[in-house]
Amino acid sequence: MKFKNWLILILVFLFQGITAQIKDPVKLKYTINSLPNNEYEAVLTATMEKDWHIYSKDLPEDSGIPTEVIVSSKDGIELIGKVIEVGKKHDEYSEAFGAQIVYYSNSVLFKQKFKLKNNTKPANVVTEITYQTCNDRVCLAPNTLEFEQKISPTAAVAETASVTEEAASTSIAGTNADSAKATNIEETTIAESVATVQEGLKVASIDFTNPQTDCGIAQKQNSENFWTYLLLGFFGGLIALLTPCVFPMIPLTVSFFTKGSKDKAKGKRDAFIYGFFILLIFVLLSVPFHIIDGIAGNIFNQISTSVGLNIAFFVIFLFFAGSFFGYYDITLPSAIANKSSKAEDAGGIIGIFFMALTLVIVSFSCTGPILGSLLGSSLTGSADIPMLLTFALAGFGFSWAIVFGLLALFPQALQSLPKSGGWMNTVKVFLGFIELGLALKFLSKADLVSKTFFLKRELFIAIWILISIGLVLYLFGKIKFPHDDKNAKISMTRKVIGVLGIGFVVYLIQGLFPGERPKLQYLSGILPPINVSYIHDEKDGILGMHPEHDYFKAIEIAKKENKPMLVDFTGYGCENCRKMEEFVWSEPDILPILQNEVILVSLYVDDKEALPESEQTSVDMGNGQKKKVKTIGDKWSLFQQINFNNNSQPHYVLISPDGKVINTPVSGYMPKEDFKAFLECGITFFKKGK
């Protein structure tokens, strides 16, 4: 498209004010402060909406888009030092990028000191900022804005209000109002510009905004699901009930309440209270993590991405495994259990509480490693880590409360419980092998964060294969541990689980060999990223596909082949885009659709390749703020905003060869089922209309 047409699209977009779906979660305020010794300080204050963040200027290559601030003047200035960032910094490891990323939430200040080369003349100082905004679901297209302000060495600066560092971690009074003012468009100027070029608008005949169908499908919003951790904790609690530390106590405890009380109704009520206190105690274990988070909100991100602490978790999990294997026991000091046991004599509700506390304490040798696994799992979550842990511990305690409560209500069910025996030690050893596998996950994260990349994806899988083989040999009685009965017969249950273990080994082996799409999808959150591999080659394209990267070329191909076109607004620094490609596009019922049923065009909104000079331009946003269009990424970013009224990535649109939107577009990372429904809806409608 010629420069003239691009300019028209931009102007029409601004004039019409189409902003219903275009997100603008960052507000910018620009000031130049006067300092002593004829020095000045350019300050850009970025205020982000809740759950949104922008990246730091210091990011590793091939990850997110770093924020870049450039201060310059045609009248001549001398920069003093480098750009300084002031704000609440978040430093964490990104699984999708395979790198450590740094970003800011709430607000951040970018400061650059400078001097005028000529102290006798005024100067127009231009500050340009390029940044990308993301949340947990989507990343918006990189944005480049330019601010200009005239300063005089002999007069007061237009705005010299001091901007303190504290403002970077709190709401800045007046920022939103000032920013709104700064981004207002001078409508008369735009209107005059549009009037002069309206006849040249070529894309107006193409219907981009009204989808022909939506198939009754509404995109589901993807949010962090705390209930997943509740279920993890619940199943962890059920497994813990089967261990030698807990299982033998179930009939004894239930019998105490149902037979030890003359009033059976009171006995059952006390049993329910006992179960409630178990739940309460486990939930209370998460309270210190909330307190720590309140004092240092970024502490858990630092923990989860610390090389040293991840290695420590690796060692701890190995230690847990040794305990489950029976080489030693992990117990709390006996004095704690003794004091809790004595407090049971208080009777009443207080006595019941201390009975529950005693159970939790004395069972620690079996529950401790499981609780440690829940803690380690929560540290890799992307949401509020203390809340994840609370839900996990609540699920753990809830499973115990249900078991004790139901057995108190139906005590005859005790007779159907299996008798204590060697099978309980089998459960512990089984968990020991699980702990070994989980330990490797923490070693892998330490390896990735430190960028040593020693633990490649294939090596990780090979070690898991060895661990799984060890588990299978144990289940079939070929390996013994200290507490195993040397002459015990192998039960049918162990044999069945052993066969399943062999199947898991076969499943893992396929991950050692390259294929047309990523393998071992069920382990995608545990294994190292695909690019940390002995066999990965960047030249292979996306899952063997080579999408078009120009909308207008792609639509010509779509016309020739009479296929719908899937427009994929993406970015090199878009983490959720990589997740969609690796975990959704690669699915066997999705990939053939992309390969055979559509013309795939991936438009990178952060492509830094410069446009030809004849196509480069800037749009005056008013109040000294300008929007630059210098790169291919700028071009496709504006193309997305103007024609599809959206600026988030990933963003998917199905378009017919005549340029019409087929069905309602979708954005962000989504489950495979939702993406498949979107594709099938549009493709089916297109084929019916041929």
Helix fraction bin: 40-55%
Poorly predicted spans: 1-21, 155-206
Spatial separation of the terminal alpha carbons: 28 Å
Sheet/helix structural class:
alpha+beta
How much of the residues is beta strand, in percent? 15-25%
Question: What is the makeup of the main sheet?
Answer: 6 strands, antiparallel
Multimer state? single chain
DSSP strand count: 17
Please tell me what the overall shape is.
globular
Figure out the total of helices: 21
Mean residue pLDDT? 75
Radius of gyration: 31 Å
Detailed description of the structure:
Helix content is 44%, strand content 17%. It is α+β, with helices and mostly antiparallel strands and 690 residues long. Strand 5 and strand 6 form a beta hairpin. Helix 12 runs parallel beside helix 14. The longest helix is centred in the middle third of the chain and has 28 residues. The N terminus is likely disordered.
Brief synopsis:
By secondary structure, the protein is an alpha+beta fold.
Notable features of this structure?
five-stranded antiparallel sheet; 17 strands; alpha+beta; disordered N terminus; 21 helices; 690 residues
Topology:
Elements: H1 3-16, E1 26-35, E2 39-48, E3 53-55, E4 68-72, E5 77-94, E6 99-116, E7 123-131, E8 133-134, E9 139-140, E10 143-151, H2 175-182, H3 187-197, H4 226-241, H5 249-259, H6 264-284, H7 287-295, H8 299-305, H9 307-325, H10 334-343, H11 348-362, H12 364-378, H13 385-409, H14 422-449, H15 457-475, H16 492-509, H17 551-561, E11 565-570, H18 575-585, H19 591-596, E12 599-604, E13 617-622, E14 625-629, H20 632-644, E15 648-649, E16 651-655, E17 666-667, H21 672-688
Parallel strand pairs: 11-12
Antiparallel strand pairs: 1-2, 2-6, 3-6, 3-8, 4-7, 5-6, 7-10, 9-15, 10-14, 11-16, 13-14, 16-17
Helix pairs in contact: 1-3, 1-20, 4-12, 4-13, 5-6, 5-13, 6-11, 6-13, 7-13, 9-12, 9-14, 10-11, 12-13, 12-14, 14-15, 15-16
